[in-house]
Every structure is written in C-alpha cells, then in structure tokens.
Amino acid sequence: MDKTAKRQYLQFLITLGLAVYLADKWASGKLSYYINARFFPLTLFAVGALCLMAAAGWLHLAAKAAEKQVEHAPDKNILIFQAFGLTVTPVLLTLFLPKTILILGVYVLTALLGWLLLLRYFHNLPGRPAAEAPPRSALLILSLPLIIGLAAPEQPLSSASLDTRGISLNAPVSISQQSTDSLAVRQDDRTILDWVKLFNYESDPSAYIGEDVNVIGFVYHDPRLPQGEFMVSRFIITCCVADAFAVGMTVDWPQDVNFEDNTWINVQGTLDVMQIGSQTVPMVHAASIQPVSAPEQPYLYP
C-alpha cells in the first residue's frame, strides 16, 4: 500500500473514531460532563457529519483500489490490510463499547462500507482519480481530540477545581434573565442554585428565614468560614465545562463530624442568612446530613 493510501486510510479511521467516541459519550450519559444538555443535538449532528465524512473517505479508498484492480493484478497487501480492519473493528466495538442502538448503528455503517469496498474489488468498478496524501500534521491535529478524550479521565469537576475557581456568591445574577422562576419552585424542591438565585433577586431574602431546606451537593471548606461551617456546593454550566463555576450554601454543622472536601451529602435543615464580605448569602442550620452517591447529573444548569 502506497503512502497516499495509508494516510487516507488513517484519516478514515480517525474520523470514524471521533464519531464513535462522541456517540459513546452521548449514549452513556457522560456527554453532560463536558457540555450543557441543550447542545446535545449539535453533538448528534456532528456524529452524523463525521460518519458521512468517514463514508466518503472509505468510498474514495474503494474507488482507488478498484481503479488499481483494473490496471494491475489485485494488491494482496491492500486486501490483507482491509480484511484485518474489517475483522478487528467489530471485535473492538463489541469488547470496549456499550451495546447501544447508536453504537450498533455506527458498526453496521462500518460493516456495510467494508462489504462495499470488497464488492468494488471483485467487480472491478471504476473509481475517481487518486487524491494527494493528507499531510501528517493534519492527521495529528485531527487525532488530537480523540487522543486527549481517550487519555483524560471521565469524571466531573470536583472541589479540587475550587482552589483556582473559588465559590461564586453573585454570578447567577448575570447568567439568566429567568432566575425569578426559582421563586415558583416549592422550597423542598429547590436546588442550591435556586436558593442562591432567590437571594440574588429578592430585595428582602430574610423573609425566607426558617423555611425548610433539602439540597444535595459536595462539601467544600471555604477558608472564609469559621470552624463548624462549610459550603455545600454544585458546579453550574452555561455552555461547557470550560466556563463552569460553583455556587454554594453555607452549612452550620457544629456536631463533631468532619466531612471531607468533595464528599457528596444531602443536607436538610432550616434557612438562615449570613454575611460573607458585603454579600448576603443563604445558610442552612443543618438538622441532618447524610453522605450520598454523586448524582448521575452532577452539574446544574441556569
């Protein structure tokens, strides 16, 4: 197989790999670790576009092989290389990827394209002229998202990120013009973000003192708080994880039970207010704190 064909085949594999990677993240629910759910349709569109690009690349390789078949005897190296790819691809998909409808659909597309390639070989179908080999630098750039995605751990942001980002006390004021919708949410159903929004939009948040609070978040020991108090926090995503920021509620928990940072807890108690600097923030006088598993969707959306 010449240099051009090898690079074109590598380009096909990278493009198909990106499609399978994004499809796997969507099907497993882990796409929400990276972007806001409202952008999921764009991701699915990208998966379809990448599949089409991979299909076009595969058909171009098939046309080139068919053209060579007409002029010369069959290239055994090409046949072996393609047969190996057709054999390994379904094995890898079966062993390492969840068996969802979307993933199986990608596999079926790959298999159909593979059989189409073999049919071109056997029937000597004419093809298009060969294109130049893609530059190695272009292949490297194309493969970088796939390499980083496979190498990076699949986990949401944790309290460790707060060492550089910190807890935001007033960011919700500027991220949503519909934040007053939180006032219509029942107090037992309010999330940390709902309570923080309420405090930022209400002229007199003290009117809510004594209301019941039931929230889930992770522990963060803010250095601005005294002994016996900590933050129960959640990360907020407006677009993607790059613009994520954390909001939190102070928890008053004088009992001699120390929860480590990043421990997910369910806090139940009554609402109070306190000052951190010049900002009035919600505080929970905790009556009960129970460690819980991290929610399937760890982020909140404004």
Offer a quick outline of the entry:
The protein is built from eight helices and five strands. The protein is of the alpha+beta class and 302 residues long.
Description:
The protein folds into 2 domains: 3-151, no CATH class; 159-291, OB fold (Dihydrolipoamide Acetyltransferase, E2P) (Beta Barrel). 45% of the residues lie in helices and 17% in strands. It contains 8 helices and 5 strands. Helix 1 (3-28) runs parallel beside helix 5. The protein is elongated. The two termini are 53 Å apart. The model is unreliable at 124-128 and 173-180 (pLDDT under 50). Residues 10-102, 202-302 form the DUF1980 domain. The chain crosses the membrane at residues 39-59, 79-97, 103-122. Keywords: Membrane, Transmembrane, Transmembrane helix. This is Putative repeat protein (TIGR03943 family).
Unreliable spans: 124-128, 173-180
Q: SS-based structural class?
A: alpha+beta
Separate helix tally: 8
Strand tally: 5
- Helix % is 40-55%
Oligomer type: single chain
Largest sheet, in brief, is: 5 strands, mixed, barrel
Rg for CA atoms: 27 Å
Strand residue percentage: 15-25%
Query: Strand order of the main beta sheet, please?
Result: 1-2-3-5-4
What order do the helices and strands follow? HHHHHHHHEEEEE
Q: Judging from the principal axes of the Cα atoms, what is the shape?
A: elongated
Q: Termini separation (Å)?
A: 53 Å
The total number of structural domains is: 2
**Roughly what is the average pLDDT, rounded to an integer?**
75
